[in-house]
Design brief:
Layout (H helix, E strand, L loop, with lengths): L2 H22 L10 E3 L8 E5 L1 H13 L3 E5 L2 E5 L2 E2 L4 E5 L3 E5 L9 E5 L2 E5 L4 E4 L5 E4 L2 E3 L3 H13 L14 E4 L2 E6 L2 E3 L6 E4 L2 E6 L2 E3 L10 E4 L2 E6 L2 E3 L5 E4 L15 E7 L2 E4 L2 E5 L5 E13 L7 E7 L5 E14 L3 E7 L14 E15 L1 E5 L6 E14 L17 E2 L2 E11 L2 E3 L3
Parallel strand pairs: 1-3, 2-4, 3-6, 4-7, 5-10, 6-11, 7-12, 10-13, 11-14, 12-15, 13-16, 14-17, 15-18, 16-19, 17-20, 18-21, 19-22, 20-23, 21-24, 22-25, 23-26, 24-26, 25-27, 26-28, 27-29, 28-30, 29-31, 30-32, 31-33, 32-34
Antiparallel strand pairs: 8-9, 34-35
Length: about 450
């Protein structure tokens, strides 16, 4: 008569024990939530110890545990090229500096994407490939230690004026390739040896709150190179470099459209950024085939000692088939020097490879709601055979004072628009030095 109650009691006790175990057992953290400080793997923040191996060891450890966040704490950590793994994020804490080595041997050459093709060249200080959901965040600094790299290039140019960019190896700061859902935010980019942030063949990228600086005389220090990528948002950034602030790039040469691994650049949004110094706010080219659906808005250009920034710069390369379309700049405030627009042939390094010259098309480009002080209106003039159509300038009120002609109050010959060969040119409510401009 006591069997049933005993069986019931044992069963109840077992259930209770299981329930207690499930409540008391700690919840295991997900691999993505893991963090690893590089100091735990032997990295030293003294600015002189070479930490490449220690940092890479930390990356491999995280990757082996399913991923997580690599943390660079406060201090200056010297390193050569490091290679993030899928699932491994990077965070630079406030006061942290990942300082690039000045020895090219610390950047072992690899087959890398550069200037519209792949070749053996230096990797970046920070490299990531096929790293979906990558996050590079924090308040720290990536320092490229660029001065000796710039000096090497200037020395080479002085010795041989035919020296090309890639003849003198110089590391980039960051390259991210073939990745989806990428975020880069908050980081300070300083004195890159070459390009700063290179995004190749990525989809769904947000770049937010970067501060990118490279000193005077720093050749080829593009702020960002958006290469064969789509759905890219760039916002709240400040850029002061010695080349294009943002460059939209692709492949190059008469066979560029055969590069099926490098899709068009499309769906690009740039907003609420400040451009202090550089070749342009946004440049399309010099390597590019199809670039479309680009909006740049609510941005400022110029400031103390600012010079030479074009607002719109479209490079028309004679050896490359190109289509640039649906590109719109609006709500731009200016205070400095430069051209509002530069749509011109770009003939540096071009090579037809014995092929007939391809054609290029530029269409549906607009510049609207622009105010401030600037240097000149600029130029639109393509190569022979180029089609340039549906160009709109609207609601522009700027004072133009090119350096050679300061002090006058009328539309100066040096500042006036130079527009040739445009089909369907629309000009509405445009004032240059207070005088209405209605067209060429």
């Amino acid at each position: 008569m006591f069997v049933r109650p005993l069986a019931f009691s044992v069963l109840a006790l077992a259930v209770a024990l299981c329930a207690c175990d499930s409540i008391a057992a700690p919840v295991a953290s997900s691999p993505a939530g893991k963090e690893a400080s590089i100091t735990d793997f032997g990295a030293k923040p003294d600015g002189t110890t070479m930490n490449t191996a220690a940092i890479q060891k930390a990356i491999e450890s995280l990757a082996g545990q399913g991923g997580g966040t690599l943390v660079i704490p406060q201090g200056t950590f010297l390193s050569g090229a490091i290679f993030l793994k899928p699932g491994v994020n990077l965070r630079l804490d406030k006061g942290a500096v990942l300082k690039g080595s000045t020895d090219v041997k610390d950047y072992p050459q690899t087959n890398t994407r550069i200037e519209g093709h792949f070749q053996q060249w230096l990797p970046a200080l920070v490299n990531a490939v096929e790293s979906d959901h990558l996050r590079i965040t924090g308040e720290g600094t990536l320092d490229g230690s660029g001065t000796p790299f710039w000096a090497a290039f200037r020395t080479a140019i002085a010795a041989d004026r035919n020296t090309k960019n890639l003849d003198v190896p110089r590391p980039r700061l960051v390259i991210i390739q073939k990745s989806k859902d990428v975020q880069v935010s908050g980081i300070h980019f300083l004195n890159s040896g070459f390009w700063n942030l290179h995004i190749y063949n990525c989809d769904g990228v947000t770049v937010d709150g970067l501060d990118i600086k490279a000193g005077d005389g720093s050749p080829s220090t593009d702020g960002m190179d958006i290469d064969s990528s789509r759905n890219v948002t760039i916002k709240n950034c400040t850029i002061s470099v010695n080349d294009d602030c943002i460059a939209l790039k692709g492949s190059k040469g008469p066979f560029a459209l055969n590069d099926k691994d490098s899709p068009p650049v499309e769906h690009i949004r740039v907003s609420d950024c400040t451009f202090v110094h550089g070749g342009s706010i946004v440049t399309v080219g010099s390597e590019a085939t199809i670039v479309r659906d680009v909006v740049v808005e609510h941005c400022k250009a110029g400031g103390p000692n600012s010079r030479g920034i074009s607002v719109i710069r479209l490079k028309l390369r004679p050896d490359t088939p190109e289509t640039y379309e649906d590109i719109h700049f609006k709500d731009i405030t200016l205070d400095g020097q430069g051209a509002l627009v530069s749509v011109q042939p770009w003939k540096q390094y071009f090579d037809l490879m014995g092929q007939p010259a391809p054609t290029r098309t530029v269409r549906n480009v607009s510049l609207s709601n622009v105010t401030g002080n600037w240097g000149s209106f600029g130029t639109i003039h393509g190569n022979d055979g180029d089609k340039i159509e549906d160009i709109t300038f609207e609601n522009i009120d700027v004072k133009l004072t090119p350096p050679a002609s300061r002090g006058t109050g009328t539309i100066l010959a040096a500042a006036a628009p130079q527009i040739v060969g445009v089909k369907n040119l629309t000009i509405k409510n445009v004032k240059l030095n207070g005088v209405a401009y209605t067209g060429p």
